[in-house]
Design brief:
alpha/beta; globular; 249 residues; seven-stranded parallel sheet
Length: 249
């Protein structure tokens, strides 16, 4: 896909992996709309960085866990920038707690933002992509959705649904030249991991991650950019985790 003048919607685009992906797309000439829940310092700084690259980028405020807000957001982006060619679903955050620690409301909320949002987003943007016979969608999963770990059961299950969601959409819309892929980051140094204790960090670096270092949002953004640009990839999940999930011990 040639990214020049393409319109890209990035949920969770105000910080972390989403922001890095937004900036990477903007540098390739795409017109980017980032979506976040609040116009906080992160949102303002990311928008300012985008507009240093080019002036035609937008920030929209919406809760991706609410279908009505997704619909409004997509309509606003199309009115401001044009039909959406690229969708990156990076919205979400940690959902801590084991089976008996979670409330039913917390369980439901995890799926609302991580899984249900892509159902509603896809229904909003795919019709236009079908008309133009081109589109690229990337879902941001996690290595927590590939291997079982202790405590955050809702996060694991929700993230584990996304690779299959990507495969299902990729197969359904392949004839329309709409490609759907997934990226599964490991331990990436973002605010997501800011509560990690020094002991947990040391365990990761010394024993769990074979490359003995954390990843960066920019490295994940490079992978997302590759999945968007490469016209012969669809239905795939690319893991970027320093070897975390490939090892036996």
């Amino acid at each position: 896909m040639n990214l020049a003048k393409k319109v890209a919607l990035i949920t969770g685009g105000t910080r972390g992996i989403g922001a890095a992906a937004a900036l990477a797309l903007a540098r390739e000439g795409a017109r980017v709309a980032i979506v976040g829940r609040r116009e906080d310092d992160d949102a303002k700084q990311t928008l300012a960085a985008l507009r240093k690259i080019a002036p035609d980028h937008e920030l929209l405020l919406a809760d991706c866990g609410r279908p009505a807000e997704i619909s409004r957001c997509v309509t606003q982006i199309e009115n401001r920038l044009g039909p959406i060619d690229i969708l990156v679903h990076s919205a979400g955050g940690p959902v801590n707690g084991g089976l008996f620690d979670l409330t039913p409301e917390a369980w439901q909320a995890a799926f609302d933002v991580h899984v249900h949002a892509i159902f509603h987003l896809s229904r909003a943007v795919i019709p236009g992509m079908r008309t133009r016979k081109e589109g690229a969608i990337v879902l941001v999963s996690s290595t927590a959705g590939i291997r079982g770990i202790i405590t955050n059961v809702a996060y694991q299950v929700a993230k584990g649904a996304l690779p299959q969601f990507a495969r299902a959409l990729a197969r359904e819309f392949a004839n329309d030249n709409i490609r759907v892929n997934c990226v599964a980051p490991g331990v990436i140094r973002t605010r997501f991991h800011e509560t990690m204790s020094p002991e947990q960090k040391r365990l990761n670096l010394e024993q769990r991650i074979p490359l003995h270092r954390e990843g960066t949002p920019e490295q994940v953004a490079e992978t997302i950019l590759m999945l968007i640009r490469n016209d012969y990839m669809t239905g795939e999940t690319v893991t970027i985790d320093g070897g975390l999930t490939m090892r036996i011990a």
